[in-house]
Amino acid sequence: MLETWNSTIYESIKQKLLDSAIKLIQDERCGQVIDSQLVIGVRESCVNLSTLSEKSFRIYVDNFEKAYIESTESFYRIRIDEYIQKHGIRSYMQYALQKLAEEETRAVRYLETQPEFNSVPKLMKVCLKTFVVDYMDHILSEVPRLLHEEDTNQLRLCYELVNRVPQEIDRLLVLLEEYIRQTGLKDIRTNAEIMLKDADKYVCRLLNLYVRFSRMVNDAFNNDPHFLTARDKAYQDIVNNTSVFVTEIPTSVCSGISRVESRCPELLASYCDMLLRKSPTNRRLTTDEIEQKLRNVLLVLKYVNSKDIFMRVHKSHLTRRLILETSADNEMEELMAGRLRK
């Protein structure tokens, strides 16, 4: 029966059926209400004919599936450039995500979902190229401005698009890392004079930068491990930068040769001393506040390259506190020592 239908009827009307089905789908994309069963009926006819023999498997693929995928691509090719020209690339990011979701839902409704046909993944691969891959340069060109504005909502849309193309994610990572590095160093240079005179302000400034960039990675990039790593690399460069807070450390007693190092470990150790000895800073803080600030020091210290410098200066301050009996809280001293050993 199916063989007779295929040879005597279907072959003579298939193009008209396919054109009618595709036209209905186009109308639906344009917002019109259609009878979806008419489209499904054409698909089912092609699928049923494809079960006649292994060779006939191509009837659905070469006719309905091929027409569906090609018409989807051509439908949006015209509209995407018009949309970007009229609304801009930022609005397009939301548009692209919306259309990708719509087309996936539509594909599940109208294409064959049996695994052996693999129709939906094929369609979505074409959609991804049409909406994202072919416009990747446009999308990424907007990222520096979005980072500068700290527009996490728009950055999240950008991330959701770029993340669908694994081979392109490194380009977004590079932009984020460079933004964090340059923004952090600019902030440090702008406030260098104040920070150098006040270790408390120095540590608070570094911590605020860490919190600021961490919030961005969470809100815009869903705490993606790759983006957390980019944050860490850039923040480490900020902490260890020698263009602002620099000191020279002798490589040996006899050689007379010294190496250039960031003053960060020295300033962190001095800040710990302010918190742990009897000082105006210590007296105005509660025990919980002191403990939290020491935790903050340890967080920044994690990114310091020359931890040996911190330990040397910290031990020197500790020795002085013990000799002069100026430690404000022995339990806090032991707590800090224990955390440094970990």
TrEMBL record:
It comes from the Eukaryota. GO terms for biological process: ubiquitin-dependent protein catabolic process. It holds the Pfam family Cullin. GO terms for molecular function: ubiquitin protein ligase binding. SUPFAM superfamilies: Cullin homology domain, Cullin repeat-like. InterPro entries: Cullin, Cullin_homology, Cullin_homology_sf, Cullin_N, Cullin_repeat-like_dom_sf. Keywords: Isopeptide bond, Ubl conjugation, Ubl conjugation pathway. Residues 263-342 form the Cullin family profile domain. Pathway: Protein modification; protein ubiquitination. Belongs to the cullin family. This is Cullin-5.
